[in-house]
Specification:
With 197 residues, this protein is an alpha+beta fold. It is built from 7 helices and 5 strands. The protein has 2 domains: 75 residues, OB fold (Dihydrolipoamide Acetyltransferase, E2P) (Beta Barrel), CATH 2.40.50; 114 residues, no CATH class. A 5-stranded mixed beta barrel has the order 1-2-3-5-4. α3 runs antiparallel to α4 and α4 crosses α7. It starts with a strand and ends with a helix.
Amino acid sequence: MAHRHYHSRGLVLNLRPLREKDLLITIFTEDLGLIRAIIKSGRDVRSKLRPHGSRFSLVKITLVRGKEWWRVVGLETEDMMSPIWSNTRAAVPAARVFDLLERLLPPEEPVDSLFTDTHNILLMFKRNQAKANSFIANLECLAVLRILSRLGYLPSIPFLAPFTGGLVLDDAIVESLTPVRLEAIKTINRSLNQTGI
């Protein structure tokens, strides 16, 4: 029986060992939402997929649906975000964004605009990692606001509307968060407390 192949771009949120040589990949895909899939023999040094399964990378992935799990049959690195991870000031907040996505995203349910938002914000982390700590803090806050808003966890609050809407993400938007960042963080904390995570 032929299996249908699903092709998508995705952000690798996590990789965990599974059984003797397999890997369990958690990936936020553009078309399918959050997917957990098995990479058969992904820890084997001879695996063709092994070099492409780096955490925090942007990949092109091909999946087939198994009885219990999705299975990865193709994986190709599209963009390494490695410059972010070599700079602790950018790496720590960017990793928190990945962790939040893993905890909050509903499985196998695409979320309108969130993949594009997240990818663009990660590119901003990559481009702006040398900027002041306040800019990096604003960028993390903006990422969390967008995630919570897209997933329906953030109440509609007028002063946050410029940061959760469909505006183009640029340095000016990030900088304009400075005067309201503390209030935004309080709102984020209240929303996260209500989710129970």
